[in-house]
Design brief:
Number of helices: 11
Helix content: 25-40%
Distance between the termini: 46 Å
Largest sheet: 4 strands, antiparallel
CATH class of the largest domain: Alpha Beta
Order of helices and strands: EEEHHEHHHEEEHHHHHEEHE
Structural class: alpha+beta
CATH superfamily of the largest domain: GHMP kinase, C-terminal domain
Shape: globular
Low-confidence stretches: none
Mean pLDDT: 93
Strand content: 15-25%
CATH topology of the largest domain: Alpha-Beta Plaits
Radius of gyration: 19 Å
Strand order of the largest sheet: 8-9-7-10
């Protein structure tokens, strides 16, 4: 990850992987011009998820309306319902996934028939992670993370996700990163060839040795308890462990499915961790799963 540019964004070179945690976004007809959002989530605290125009899914719907001929847009409205399964504020791009799903859902509901390229362009206007949420699989992200190239990846990869108490603000984590780097030179970001080879190999030990997140020191600085969580996982001899995104979720790479089950038991009750989740990757991006007239 490079230093912030004149636009305030940090250039990145990152590898995204979709995993088997999903939110469901339902789009239903609403009065013309109206965009509403409701949110539920079994076992997930959704109180911090906006229910108004600040919600990224609502912004996605509004963006599509702006792309439609004004005469046609005057007849369109949508009620979005988000059923959360991805941890909120955990550094796992759940909001971006909801925005990507809203783009697909509204396109289907309103029968806009936008091309994949048009949807990807709209996604890039909403946020750096939204285009990947549409694409899914495994991909290299450059620029802000929205310039995507699909990557060859073995697998399946088995992950145990340690969802820490509370949330971390992504802007605050980036600010802390800049503070920690102050006065030091920063190389241009690049994805190592060794990482790409490890991904293709399907070898969790090889991939685990290459896992790295430039935001991890900043997340641990703001949430020192994460250092203990990471060390506890390392002490179990896992192939790899790192903070997911801007945190505070910690992603642990397991050797296989059986090892992931063993880790779920071994890491249960870890202080500061409110939930353990299993996931596999790579998985596809957003999909329309059902349509009701």
């Amino acid at each position: 990850m490079g230093p912030p540019g004149s636009d305030g964004y940090h250039p990145v070179a990152t590898v995204f992987q979709g995993v088997s945690l999903y939110d469901d976004v339902t789009a239903s007809w609403a009065p013309p011009g109206e965009i509403s959002v409701s949110v539920t989530g079994a076992g997930i605290d959704t109180t911090g998820v906006p229910r108004d125009g600040r919600n990224l899914a609502a912004r996605a719907a509004a963006l599509l309306l702006d792309m439609v001929d004004p005469d046609d847009a005057a007849d369109l409205g949508v009620a979005l319902h988000i059923d959360k399964r991805i941890p909120v504020g955990g550094g796992m791009a759940g909001g971006s996934a909801d925005a990507a799903a809203a783009l697909l859902a509204c396109d289907a509901l309103w029968q806009l028939r936008l091309s994949r390229g048009e949807l990807q362009a709209a996604a890039a206007r909403l946020g750096a992670d939204v285009p990947f949420a549409l694409l899914g699989g495994t991909a290299v992200g450059l620029g802000r993370g929205d310039r995507l190239t699909p990557a060859l990846a073995g697998g399946p990869w088995h992950w145990v996700l340690l969802v820490a108490d509370g949330e971390l603000s992504t802007p605050e984590v980036y600010e802390e990163l800049d503070r920690l780097r102050s006065g030091r030179g920063t190389a241009a970001p690049a994805v190592s060839q060794s990482l790409m080879v490890a991904l293709r190999s399907g070898d969790p030990v090889a991939l685990g040795a290459m896992l790295r997140n430039d935001l991890q020191p900043a997340a641990c600085s703001l949430r020192p308890s994460l250092k203990h969580v990471i060390q506890m996982a390392r002490d179990l001899g896992v192939p790899g462990v790192m903070v997911s995104g801007s945190g505070p979720t910690v992603a642990v790479l397991a050797e296989d499915g059986d090892h992931a089950e063993e880790l779920m038991i071994a890491l249960y009750g870890l202080p500061g961790i409110k939930r353990l989740l299993r996931a596999e990757g790579p998985t596809p991006g957003c999909r329309v799963t059902d349509m009701v007239a």
